[in-house]
Amino acid sequence: MFLKKCRIQFFNRQMFRRSQKGFTVIELLIVLIILALLAYIALPNLIHAYISINEKSVKTALRTFHTANEAFKNAQNPPVFASKVDELIHPPSRPPYLDSSWGRSLKHGYKLIYAGGGGEHAKSYSLVAIPAILNRTGKNAYCIDQKGILVSANGQGESVLKGSPEGCEGGSVVLMG
Q1: Distance of CA 99 to CAs 33, 88, 94, 142, Å?
Q2: Would you say 85 and 114 are in contact if contact means Cβ atoms under 8 Å apart?
Q3: 150 and 144 Cβ atoms separated by less than 8 Å
Q4: I need a labelling partner for 126 at 20 to 30 A (CA). Which of 19, 40, 134, 142 fits?
C-alpha cells in the first residue's frame, strides 16, 4: 500500500510540473538580452543604409529638378527659369513639370531651399538640399544650379556650400552614380 501511495504521489507531482505552462523570468531575461545584442549590432548598419538611400535619392531628385526647370525655361518666351518651385508643380495651362511631393519642405530627409529664377535672376537659380537631421537623415549637403552640375559639401557641413540666385558656390562636383 505504501509503495502504491508513493507511486501515486510521484505521478501527481510529475503531472503538476507538466501542467505548469510559461517561461521563467530567467529564460525571458536571456531572450531579451539576446534581442538587445542583435539590435545593438544591426541598428548602426540600418541607419547607415537609411542615410545612403536618402543621399542617393536626393541626388537623383536634384537632377530631376534641374531637368524639370530646364523644360520649364524652354517653354517660356523669353526663356526664364521658374521663380519658385510652385511654378513647376502648378504651371499655368500646362501639365506639371514636377509632382506635388516637391511642394513639401522635406524630400528624402532633406530640406530644400530654392533661390533665383524670375526678375534679375531669370537666367539662373540654385536648389540646395540640407539634411533635416545631420547624420540621421543624411551626411552631406547638395546643390544644383542652372549649369546642371551637382555639388556636395562632402560632410564638411552646409556652411561650405552656398546656394544663391546666381548658382551654387563652394563644395565639390559629384560624379554620376
Answers
A1: 46, 8, 13, 21
A2: yes
A3: yes
A4: 134
